[in-house]
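Per reviewer request, we include the raw input and output of the structure prediction for the construct analysed in the revised manuscript.
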Amino acid sequence: MNEVTFTAAFLGGIISFFSPCILPLLPVYISLFSGLSTAELSVGNSRLRIFIYTLIFIAGFSTVYLALGVGSSFIGTLFFDYQDYLRIIGGVFLILFGLVLIGLIKSGFFVREFRLNVKAQKFGTPVGAFLIGVGFAAGWSPCIGPVLGSILIYSSMSGSIVSGIKMLGAYSMGIAIPFLISSLLIDTVMRYLRKFMKIFRWINYLIGVSLIILGLLMISGIFTV
């Protein structure tokens, strides 16, 4: 896998973090897996706990994303002889993902949530933080679906399981690093979060248009070149 693909997957993770389904709800996520109330998040002696539980939470969603990378690449190897057809189908899906993000397609299928039920008594424990991370990756953030789906499509076309692991690993890092930084600065994040709420809609538009362009390039074959 070349550096451009790795960087694109990493940037896709960062974009996903800044989506309306993650950043505005950041205090809620951290409160949920750390077992602390939103008022306790700003307390200085809680930072070590938040940091450790954030790492465990990251391990949970990274496990799921890496498994998805292996699965998508394995499917790609099975259909390697049909790469041209997969390229066109993948391009069509990218365009559909883009149209969903800019609001021209209203479909519950593309933004459906598949939540895992984590028992309340497990909140605030290492096991609970890991399971919440798994649940987060499994569908608690439907807004990241188009970006993640686009990366999985490209991963399946690579025909290499190693490339799939690297791509989804890069994507996980793209979400994990700002998540970790924000958890350490959670009091500052909570203070300034409302000021940035208005730009989230424009971020969706930008991602949507980018996916449509990439889809058209993929269908035409230029993207592969």
